[in-house]
Design goal:
- By secondary structure, this protein is an all-alpha fold.
- The chain has two domains: 45 residues, no CATH class; 36 residues.
- Helix content is 70%, strand content 0%.
- The longest helix is centred in the C-terminal third of the chain and has 22 residues.
């Protein structure tokens, strides 16, 4: 196998050569994973379906739902402080 033919092969080669963490940083895997987690959280907490019918109303519905999720995340996020 002289060259990696598919994206999967290239990813496996990169993981073998540089390690999993370097592969995640190179490919942006962690950002993709975070986006997937956010969508899953939205679907689980808010709902799978939009109730509004028109596009502007749907956009407003999603914006409000995201605002609520962000508020929930900020409320549960621990505040870290350096011990002196």
């Amino acid at each position: 196998m002289p060259g990696a033919r598919s994206q999967r092969d290239r990813h496996i080669r990169l993981i073998t050569k540089k390690g999993r963490i370097a592969w995640q940083k190179t490919t942006g895997y962690s950002r993709c994973r975070l986006a997937g987690t956010a969508v899953g959280r939205y679907k689980a907490i808010i709902d799978l379906k939009l109730r509004a019918r028109s596009l502007p109303a749907q956009q407003a519905e999603v914006a409000k739902a995201v605002e609520v999720l962000n508020r929930m995340i900020r409320a549960a996020k621990p505040v870290s402080a350096r011990a002196t």
